[in-house]
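Take a specimen:
=====
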Amino acid sequence: MYPFLRLGLNLFAARKLPPMDPLEMHVSQHRCRLVDCDIFMEMNNGRILTLYEMGRFQAAVRMGLWALLKKKRWGLTVAGTSIRYRKRITPFEKYETRTKIAAWDDRFVYIEQGMYKLNGDCASHVLLRTAVVAKGRAVPTDVLIEAMGIPTPRPTPAPWVQNWIDAEATRIWPPELEKP
């Protein structure tokens, strides 16, 4: 089940944090709970994606996007993701989530996130292709960037981010699955 109570607490906590520039990194501290774990007593890979979402929502509150979404009746969606899992996070272990905008193009905002153990090891790292939506359609990123008042030029994506964007552009959709 989706952790709605936890989301509410995270959003409430984010309101108490100072505002941030949209191109800054949002950092939040957390603790792995038993409900986050699978039968191997490590954080479940699906739950990791849900907890990353909470980090993005907290960042959205701090950068003013959350208020803008409510005002304009916009929503958020994930249109693609690439994740690497490298270290286990176990029950009751503290970790930190780091969230930042990596780049954007005409259609999508690319968000980079990492979960870091207290010793500095990166446990997992994700790149997400996201969009703001209105009435079932993506809001062009130039409209979003202007509404957020981001005056800085578009950041240049890191080479690995650009490689992923380019690779995704070649992916066939819908997929052509062979019939059994």
User: Anything to note?
Assistant: The chain is about 30% helix and 30% strand. The first strand starts at residue 26 and ends at 31. The mean pLDDT is 95.
